[in-house]
Amino acid sequence: MMSVVHRLTAGWLVDHLSFINQCGYEICDSFAYPGNVTLHTSVNSTGDCHGTSTFAATSSSRDGPIPGPGDAIETEGKTAKTRYVFREEFFDVLKPHIAAAPEQQLWQGCSEVSLTEIKANSNREEHQEGTKSGVGDSVASARKKRKRKCVFNQGELDALEYHSKVRKLIWEGTLHLVQEGLKSGFLHRTAAELSCRKNVILGHIGCGLAELCEMAKQFPAVNESDHQTVHVLDDETSIPEQDLLSCVTENSSNCAKIVVLMGQKYLVPPKSSFLLSDISCLQPLLNYKKKYDVIVIDPPWENKSVKRSNRYSHLSSWQIKQIPVPALAAPNCLVVTWVTNRQKHLRFVKDELYPHWSVKTLAEWHWVKITRAGEFVLPLDSLHKKPYEVLVLGRVQEDVKEALRKSEDVLPIPEHKLIVSIPCSLHSHKPPLTVVLAEFVKPDVECLELFARNLQPGWTSWGNEVLKFQHIDYFTLLQNEN
After folding, report:
1. What angle do CA 344, 350, 351 make, to 5 degrees?
2. Is 389 helix (H, G, I), strand (E, B) or coil?
3. How far is the C-alpha of 380 from the C-alpha of 360, rounded, in Å?
4. How far apart are the C-alpha atoms of 200 and 66, rounded to whole Å?
5. What is the mean predicted confidence (pLDDT) over 374-398?
6. What is the mean pLDDT of the chain?
7. Least confident of 213-227, 318-332, 378-392
8. Most exposed residue of 125, 297, 323, 437, measured as fewest CB within 10 angstroms of its CB?
9. DSSP readout, 194-248?
10. Backbone torsions φ then ψ of 296, nearest 5 degrees
11. Rounded to an integer, what distance in angstroms lies between the CA atom of residue 24 and that of residue 54?
């Protein structure tokens, strides 16, 4: 699997960008344009995604404009191929967001550090940040910073205690994987100096998907008995908003499609399906009548920074518990939940959420974010933000004998693994779990992602921003010679 660059006992070094681009987008099909010009619109897939066949794109109109310079045109029997690739500049994370002190850098080795020393490092980091931003501070706020230095609230103390337990596992495992990445050339110690690409600053991309879900609540009520459960994509591209928001949209072909929603184009991979809705409109997903062997959940956890930024809506713990996972899960379903570094949320998943869904907690894995040079994107002992996130893995509980019989063909879930990768600079674009979970589930299983922001071949995806990172502006259309 090319998107797994290295696999060691500690975990995997994963190439997120490679995974996206191995999922497709080579154009090869065609239909006639006026004047005997042909626009090629099917996209073949090569790589390790679940739906091995093809990606494709359809044009918005057979009577539309003549293809532009980026499109593939066939004349006099000669075919030029084009394909979509995800824009690699979104993965150009070359330097840490905050540089670690020399003694805290990955290469210095993982010395044993006490909780007291971690607190001191956090205080030092906070003092440095205060010095940087203190030019225009008032005397009162400066005093507040000095006072704040010495005091940790209970949530921070809990987080520090947890961090002290996992710190050595993360440091040593990441170091081994990074060393392999440097040996193979996937990572480069001089990456920051070598690159001259400018940072990408994007304006607003796509229509407001979350706002569209809110608007959908004003649509006339649909009679369940008369309404279709699934909207299957064919050659049409512009889908009525009511259809898109009231049933699961499925691309069952071996070709990708470009769908147009409120004038915006989105790429839909082959063998994928999705429902664009918020948590109040989950019934179409239940009507889809599928039971899933893998369910990945990335909840919009409530926290202070989310409230302040208003970047995306958050859900309370009570609302997250209402998600009908038991109704969606097949027997022995593997459930994976992304958790922020707040211990409150981690305890909630393990002690309340999973028991409520009859899921037994099996493991905690960590996603570690590094730069192209192999450094942590943030100091490992940073108080406010860590260079890692937590995944809690569990299985739906059932009859013990039946569970043992079904698990005979797959490896047991390891108690701890690392997924190390260069993160996408787009907010909350998580690395794919398809390749790392493959050895722990049977082939050809049904997979579901909840609160998804992108689509994958072989998966059903649900969320109020489910098409967000499928917008065509995140991709580049390449021109290839025969």
Report:
1. 80
2. strand
3. 30
4. 30
5. 92
6. 76
7. 213-227
8. 437
9. H--PPPP-----S--HHHHHHHHTTSPPPPTTTS-SEEE--S--B--HHHHHHSE
10. -105, 130
11. 7
- Within 8 A by CB and 6+ apart from 477, the residues are 70, 71, 82, 83, 84
Q: Calculate the CA 124 to chain-centre distance.
A: 32
State the average pLDDT over residues 453-473. 93
- What whole-number distance in Å separates Cα of residue 360 and Cα of residue 354? 7
State the pLDDT at residue 400. 57
Q: Dig out the tokens for 375 from the structure.
A: 């450094």
Let me know: does 56 contact 29? Beta carbons within 8 Å: yes
Which residues have a Cβ under 8 Å from the Cβ of 318 and sit 6 or more positions away?
none
Residues contacting 389, CB < 8 A, separation 6+: 338, 339, 340, 341, 366, 367, 369
| Spatial separation of the C-alpha atoms in residues 48 and 19, rounded to whole Å | 7
Backbone angles phi, psi at 343, to 5 degrees: -65, -30
Per DSSP, 443 falls in state T
| pTM listed for this prediction | 0.80
CB 365 within 8 A of CB 349: no
pLDDT of 48 higher than 90: no
Kindly state the average pLDDT of the residues 157-185.
94
Q: CB–CB of 74/83 below 8 Å?
A: no
pLDDT digits (tens, 9 = 90+) for 49-84: 444 322 233 333 333 333 333 344 344 444 445 688
Give me the amino acid identity at 430.
K
The closest of 385, 311, 308, 323 to 354, measured between CA atoms, is 323
| Alpha-carbon distances of 33 from 43, 66, 219, 367, 386, rounded to whole Å | 18, 8, 36, 47, 53
Length of the chain in terms of residues written: 482
The C-alpha atoms of residue 174 and residue 189 are separated, in whole angstroms, by 15
Q: d(Cα 231, Cα 245) in Å, to the nearest integer?
A: 10
- Taking only the tens place, the pLDDT of each residue in 361-370 is 999 999 999 9
User: What CA–CA distances, in Å, run from 470 to 247, 266, 465?
Assistant: 19, 5, 10
Answer whether 40's CB lies under 8 Å from 30's CB: yes
Tell which residue, 446, 475, 223, has the closest CA to residue 328.
446
- What gap in Å lies between CA 106 and CA 124, rounded to an integer? 18
Residue 114: the pLDDT is: 63
Residue 287 has pLDDT above 50, yes or no: yes
Element (H, E) at 46: none
Question: What's the pLDDT tens digit per position in 390-439?
Answer: 999 999 987 655 555 555 678 899 999 999 999 998 888 899 899 899 98
Under a CB-based contact definition with an 8 Å cutoff, are residues 334 and 393 in contact? yes
Task: Report helix, strand or coil for 425.
Answer: coil
